[in-house]
């Protein structure tokens, strides 16, 4: 399976800075980077810009969230069909910042994943434990519960789905899980995917996210069950993001 590197720009960017970043990525990609799948997830207003600038090139694009509802009286929400209109390949769902600041439950995240899949968009389902949960020895139970909600709602483990293991204590903190710590959890998630649907474990990418950067990407990506990365801060810097892509070759 090709490795998948996804940038999550979070609530950053402007027309001008996005254009500079995307030009930097496009100019910096080398022929060998074709062995890596690359995508960028931007705030919704910039999706037409991504569609225009990335076009049919090698970098895909996606959203950072999607509504759990199909359409109607949900002011401020963006539906999966709207994302489809702008050719989004991916939508992040259940990022810990949405679970934490917007009260998204496992059930809401599962409904979002289902909406994305129904519209032909690959949901990047984020799971991960807080520091308190890790310290209490609950890491495995938490990530399994979060993923189980999605598998239950969708009815199986779609091979069109991506899972991202993002320990909450590692996001934006500069504190990365060690490759060994991440591998343990990825192995658990791989087994859960396999148990849910025959052969899904061979097709579903399981990404690591949480302060992945140019310096630590290679050692994380060398782990047998780490199929790529979800990159926050480092995806806002051209040389860093390119170096992570190179580490994934
Ligand atoms: C993220 O937002 O998904 C993330 C992993 O952020 P960072 O790389 O900045 O920790």
UniProtKB/TrEMBL annotation:
What terms describe the molecular function in GO for this protein? triose-phosphate isomerase activity
Principal subcellular localisation of the protein: cytoplasm
Locate the active site: 95, 166
Coiled-coil spans are none
Q: Does the keyword DNA-binding apply?
A: no
Q: Where is the protein localized? A: Cytoplasm
A Pfam family assignment? TIM
Top-level division of the source organism's lineage: Bacteria
> Keyword set for this entry?
Cytoplasm, Gluconeogenesis, Glycolysis, Isomerase
Q: Which residues bind substrate?
A: 8-10, 172, 211, 232-233
Is Cell membrane given among the entry's keywords? Answer: no
* Catalysed reaction equations from the record: D-glyceraldehyde 3-phosphate = dihydroxyacetone phosphate
In terms of CDD domains, this protein maps to: TIM
Enzyme Commission identifier(s): 5.3.1.1
The entry assigns this protein to a family as follows: Belongs to the triosephosphate isomerase family.
What PANTHER family is this protein classified in?
A: TRIOSEPHOSPHATE ISOMERASE (PTHR21139)
* Reported function: Involved in the gluconeogenesis. Catalyzes stereospecifically the conversion of dihydroxyacetone phosphate (DHAP) to D-glyceraldehyde-3-phosphate (G3P).
What subunit structure does UniProt give? Homodimer.
Its recorded name reads Triosephosphate isomerase
Query: To which species is this protein native?
Result: Hydrogenophaga defluvii
**Gene name?**
tpiA
């Amino acid at each position: 399976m090709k490795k998948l590197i996804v940038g999550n720009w979070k609530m950053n960017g402007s027309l001008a800075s996005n254009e500079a970043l995307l030009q930097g990525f496009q100019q910096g990609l080398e022929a060998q980077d074709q062995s890596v799948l690359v995508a960028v997830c931007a705030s919704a207003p910039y999706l037409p810009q991504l569609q225009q600038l990335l076009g049919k090139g090698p970098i895909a694009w996606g959203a950072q969230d999607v509504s759990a509802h199909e359409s109607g009286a949900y002011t401020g929400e963006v539906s999966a069909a709207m994302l489809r209109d702008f050719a989004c390949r991916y939508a992040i769902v259940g990022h810990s910042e949405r679970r934490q600041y917007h009260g998204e439950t496992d059930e809401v995240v599962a409904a979002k994943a289902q909406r994305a899949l129904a519209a032909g968009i690959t949901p990047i389902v984020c799971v991960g434990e807080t520091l308190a949960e890790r310290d209490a020895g609950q890491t495995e139970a938490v990530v399994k519960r979060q993923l189980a909600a999605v598998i239950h709602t969708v009815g199986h483990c779609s091979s069109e789905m991506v899972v991202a293991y993002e320990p909450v204590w590692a996001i934006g903190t500069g504190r990365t899980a060690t490759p060994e710590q991440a591998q343990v959890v990825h192995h658990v998630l791989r087994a859960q995917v396999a148990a849910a649907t025959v052969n899904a474990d061979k097709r579903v990418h399981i990404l690591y996210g949480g302060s992945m950067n140019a310096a630590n990407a290679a050692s994380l990506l060398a782990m047998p069950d780490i199929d790529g990365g979800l990159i926050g801060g480092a995806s806002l810097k051209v040389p860093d993001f390119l170096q992570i892509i190179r580490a994934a070759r």
